[in-house]
Design goal:
Helices cover 77% and strands 0% of the residues. It is built from two helices and no strands. It starts with a helix and ends with a helix.
């Protein structure tokens, strides 16, 4: 089995060059973060509504 080391070296060099040129995307919001924030707000709203109803039932 013959391995073409020259081709592997060229592919590795091209890949590392592209990876070095890519800019980080630190300032972009991803869907996981947005989904987590939405879930957090929905949970907080649900807890608020639950305790409001619970307080009204116990006050009567």
């Amino acid at each position: 089995m013959k391995v073409l080391l020259e081709g592997i070296t060229m592919n590795a060099t091209a890949l590392s060059t592209r990876a070095a040129e890519m800019q980080p995307r630190e300032n972009e919001l991803d869907l996981v973060l947005v989904g987590g924030v939405v879930l957090l707000f929905l949970s907080a709203a649900g807890i608020f509504i639950y305790f409001k109803k619970y307080k009204e039932e116990n006050a009567a």
